[in-house]
Amino acid sequence: MRTEHTDLHWSNLTRPRLWILDWEYWDRAPVGFGVATLYLHSLLVPDVATRVHNGFADLLDSPTGQGAQLGAAAHILSRSYRVDDYAELQHPVREHVQHLLGEG
Prior knowledge:
Number of helices: 5
Order of helices and strands: EEHHHHH
Shape: globular
Number of strands: 2
Structural class: mainly alpha
Protein name: Aminoglycoside phosphotransferase domain-containing protein
Number of domains: 1
Strand order of the largest sheet: 1-2
């Protein structure tokens, strides 16, 4: 566990100068939770998802990173059901979870 931005997605990043916004959801979380959240939010644009994965493969492909991805997926899917957020992410996140669990 370490301090993580638990709502890291593209709307919370600026460019061309990188700033990370929206820190009200920072907390202690599994290592890699922020990166996992960003990666899952990237699944809607496969080229971007590939770039994020390649940039953080050492973490995302580790057992810790895979656990962080499952936790981030649970967060996204829970919010999609409870408060109608992330509706467009439901299908790609579910498919990714099946892949992580060896079911797809």
